[in-house]
Design goal:
It is a single chain. By secondary structure, the chain is α/β, with parallel strands linked by helices. It is built from seven helices and eleven strands. The protein has helices spanning 14-26, 75-80, 83-94, 105-113, 156-167, 170-179, 182-185; strands spanning 3-8, 30-35, 41-43, 49-51, 54-55, 66-69, 98-102, 120-121, 135-136, 141-144, 147-150. The chain has a seven-stranded mixed beta sheet, sandwiched between helices. Strands 3-4 form a two-stranded antiparallel sheet. A two-stranded parallel ribbon has the order 8-9. Helix 1 links the parallel strand 1 and strand 2 (30-35). Helix 5 (156-167) runs antiparallel to helix 6 (170-179). The protein starts with a strand and ends with a helix.
């Protein structure tokens, strides 16, 4: 079974963190939420307190198949300011593991770490100027090799289904999307 770590910092965007957690767990993926604060409770950009599975200090992260970085401000900046998060992302990427980021996180975290160099990527509009070494697509979700980026809160569902298809398979992702009525919402069959 694939293992995913979702790093949460104060100020994270609620749906960008929790929709991928929900979708991946429905798809049978082991997802571990990680607080990078001093407490297991992390406060979202909209004042929602989320109790994480572990504190950063409790994690090893060498067994990660994927790391997910939600956006939101100042959540994305707080992720980048945490040296351990940066090291985990760079180490996993260098080892060929999957890295995923949404909203501001591609521009605020992945770009400065060099993860997006030479890659196609997307991010929240207004942050694209930070993607100096990447090709900005402006798409809801962009996949380039082992890096997946997404635009913002509205992209949280397609982002999550894409990640599930990568960690499991397209059939499982489609079944979960159908069961959650996403395909009906989008007029898909």
């Amino acid at each position: 079974m694939a293992k995913v770590y979702v790093f949460l910092a104060n100020g994270f965007e609620d749906v960008e963190a929790l929709i991928p957690v929900d979708v991946l767990r429905r798809g049978g993926i082991e997802v571990v939420t990680v607080s990078i604060t001093d407490f297991p409770l992390v406060t979202s950009a909209h004042g929602v307190n989320i109790e994480t599975d572990i504190m950063y200090e409790q994690g090893d992260f060498s067994d990660a198949d994927m790391i997910i970085l939600p956006g939101g401000m100042p959540g994305a900046s707080n992720l980048y300011d945490h040296k351990g998060v940066c090291k985990a992302v760079v180490d996993l990427f260098a080892a060929g593991g999957k890295v995923a980021a949404i909203c501001a996180a591609p521009a605020v975290v992945l770009a400065p770490l060099g993860v997006l160099d030479g890659k196609k990527a997307t991010c929240y509009p207004g942050f694209e100027s930070a993607l100096t070494e990447a090709t900005y697509t402006g798409d809801l979700v962009t996949v380039d090799g082992n890096v997946t980026t997404a635009e913002g809160p509205a992209a949280a569902f397609p982002f999550a289904y894409e990640l599930l298809s990568q960690l499991s398979n397209r059939q499982t992702a489609d079944q979960i999307a159908e069961g959650m009525r996403y395909k009906h919402l989008m007029g898909m069959r």
